[in-house]
Design brief:
single chain, 177 residues, mainly alpha, 0% strand, PaREP1
Length: 177
């Protein structure tokens, strides 16, 4: 994880982002075990964002073909894949749904709700966070990570899968069991 991130045009980019997703997911579960729910929510969000970066890169050619303009195609390459801007995650997940990743925007919504919870904590009034208690947020951290693990498992044949990735995936699965 401490190695520099490969450029999105390099072969190892997808694997690096998947490893980042799994490491962040493991940290989220570690934080939950220690009762640090806001930290866990932040790590779960980061895990989802890293997964989306890997998926965006895997589907880049399909996304560029579906893009409505040359400007949008350039933006996908220069900003969306390397940065996955938080404010554009909803739209990016909808684009990924259009190229075959059904249900992704619903899970992205959950990740964005956890991102809000990280910054605002529990909010019984529902003005700043969708979670009225720590327990609600903790449950969503676990369900988001379960979904992430299943999705990573499903695309591992499309990435340059390594022993390091397999080990990280196994560790997260063990923590979820």
């Amino acid at each position: 994880m401490e190695r520099p991130l490969p450029r999105p045009t390099e072969e190892g980019y997808v694997a690096a982002r998947l490893l980042e997703a799994l490491v962040e997911a493991k940290l989220a579960l570690d934080f939950l075990q220690r009762g640090l729910v806001r930290n866990a929510a932040g790590k779960a969000f980061q895990a989802w964002r890293a997964y989306m970066a890997a998926l965006l890169r895997l589907e880049l050619e399909k996304l560029k073909a579906a893009a409505k303009s040359e400007e949008e195609r350039r933006w996908l390459v220069s900003r969306a894949v390397p940065g996955v801007p938080t404010g554009r995650m909803k739209g990016l997940s909808q684009m990924l749904e259009e190229v075959g990743h059904v249900g992704l925007s619903l899970w992205t919504d959950r990740a964005l709700h956890l991102h809000d919870y990280q910054h605002h904590g529990p909010d019984p009034a529902g003005e700043y966070s969708k979670y009225s208690s720590r327990e609600e947020a903790a449950r969503d951290v676990v369900t988001l990570i379960r979904e992430l693990v299943g999705l990573v498992d499903a695309i591992k044949t499309r990435a340059k899968w390594t022993e390091e990735l397999e080990k990280a995936l196994g560790e997260v699965k063990r923590q979820l069991a």
